[in-house]
Amino acid sequence: MILVLWDIDRTLLYVDETDRTVYREVYREVVGREAERLPKRGTGITTPLAVRELLLANGIANAKVAELAQRIVDRLPERLARHRESMRLSGQLLPGAAAALAAVRETEGFVPTVLTGNLQESAQIKLATFSFLGYVDISVGGFTSDDSHRPSLVNVAQRRSVSAYGRDFSRRNTVIIGDSIQDVRTGKEGGAAVIGVASGTTSAAQLSEAGVDDVLPDLTNADRLLKVIHELASGSSS
C-alpha cells in the first residue's frame, strides 16, 4: 500500500483572500485593533507559526504572544466557516485537481489523505466547500492542530494509517504531493518522497533546487501523477 499525502492550499484549491480576511477579523477581535501586516502568501507555513508571525509583525510583545496566539488559533475554524460562501465564490479549484484526486482515490493500494498546515477543522471546511472530502480519508491525515512542526505530521499520518489499515507506512511507501518548499522540507525531514506541483508561488525550478523527488507543472495529467507515485514508492527513478 502507498500512503498519499495531499497538501491543500495552492495544490488542490485556492481560497483567494479568505484566509487573510479571517486572520484580520480574528486578530481584531482578540487584540482589539487592526493588523497592519499579515503573514506572507503561499509559504506553506503552519497555522500556529503564521499566527505567531502575525502577532510579532504587528508589534505584540514576546511575553504576550503565546497566550494571544492560542486564542486566535482557537477561533480561526469557526470564523472560516462563516466565509464558506465567499470562499466558494471567490476561490477556485486548481487545474486537474478533481480528476487527480479521483484517480488516486480509485487506484487500488493507494491510501489518500492530507498533510497540511491547516488546522484539522479548517482543512475539513475547505475540502467540504469544494466537494473534495469524499476523495480522502481525513481521519488518518496530519494537521497543524496535531503539531506545529510540519515534518512531524508525516509520522502522525503514518501512525494513524498503520492503526486504520493494519499495514506499515514509512519513507519507502509514503508520498507527499504539494506546491511549496515547506512540502519538500516536510518530506525530506519527516520521511516521505515528495512530488512538487508548480501550481502555487514556487516555480518548478525552485522546487527542483530544494530537492523535490519529481515535479509536475500542474495536476492535469493524472496518468503521469499515478506513474510518478508508483515509481517513488517502489524506489525507481522517475
SSE layout:
Layout: E1 2-6, E2 13-14, H1 18-31, H2 47-57, H3 62-81, H4 84-90, E3 92-93, H5 97-106, E4 110-114, H6 120-129, H7 152-165, E5 174-178, H8 181-190, E6 193-197, H9 204-209, E7 214-216, H10 222-234
Parallel strand pairs: 1-4, 1-5, 5-6, 6-7
Antiparallel strand pairs: 2-3
Helix pairs in contact: 1-3, 2-3, 5-10, 7-8
What does this structure look like?
- It is built from ten helices and seven strands.
- The protein is α/β, with parallel strands linked by helices.
- Strands 4-1-5-6-7 form a five-stranded parallel beta sheet, with helices on both faces.
- β5, α8 and β6 form a beta-alpha-beta unit.
- The radius of gyration is 17 Å and the shape is globular.
- The model has no long low-confidence stretch (mean pLDDT 95).
Question: Gist?
Answer:
The chain has 238 residues and is an alpha/beta fold. Helix content is 48%, strand content 11%.
Quickly list its features.
Rossmann fold, 238 residues, 5-stranded parallel β-sheet, 10 helices, two-stranded antiparallel ribbon, globular, 11% strand, alpha/beta
